[in-house]
Amino acid sequence: METSSEGLRIERKTDRMLTIEQLRWAGIRNGASVLDLGCAAGTTCRIMAGLVGRTGRVVGVDASHKRVEEGRAHADHRQTIEYRQGFAEEIPAGKGEFDIVWSRFLFEYLAEPQKVLAEMMRVTKPGGTVCVSDLDGNCIWHHPCEASLQKEIDAALATLAGGFKPRIGLSLFSLFVDAGLQDLSVDVRPYHVIAGGIDADREEHWRMKLEGVCNALTVRGWSPIRAISLSTRFMSLLRDSRSFTYSVLITMRGTVMSVK
Ligand SMILES: C[S@@+](CC[C@H](N)C(=O)[O-])C[C@H]1O[C@@H](n2cnc3c(N)ncnc32)[C@H](O)[C@@H]1O
To answer: What is the Cα–Cα distance from 130 to 121, expressed in whole angstroms?
Structure first.
């Protein structure tokens, strides 16, 4: 869902307090070595760096050269963050390199989530933690929603299938079980709750997000007019004083017992 403003969109939408709470739940603490997989322009890496302090280490990996460059451009002399361009399917890191391997809002874009989870385990120390956080119901649950709009949303999701899994959160638990992770914990919380309209800030965030969706749809054969029309109707739905939208953020934590 690449756009020229994607790094900025992620920076602006990141809820710092929620992120700190999630990272502490993942076990990120002073002195830990941590990997953020799918780090984008490093918004979460910078929060992690504050939690691990000078004795810890933060590495961010992202497939996008542009995001990695943006992350490096944010360098702050008080924080040591190393960015590596690379793919989650073949993480550019050594076996057992990290205490905690974290990933948020990446799995919904993966063709082979099991393969990536195995990679995350490979780069985690024995006894270390793997944590994955993603959504169930991203962009799909709205009420009331005109039948013709719902049909067009469903068509868009079908077009993006394979490249976007809006219900990946639901399958994270079984992915962790099947991967052999131990001491599993699940955290579930509401996300994207929009009841009776959105304020200007959130509207701007959704505008940026829908720009990425339009790009992805046109690359997959939709006419620009059709994609923009869907985006316009979707925004009207979010602004509607009777409309309710939500998704659920599911976070899994598990311990790696042995490195394969
Ligand atoms: C929505 S952003 C997530 C940003 C951040 N983790 C957060 O919590 O907001 C998804 C990121 O995953 C990256 N990405 C997508 N597929 C990837 C892959 N196969 N390997 C590595 N990074 C990938 C994208 O470039 C993008 O920066």
So the answer is: 7
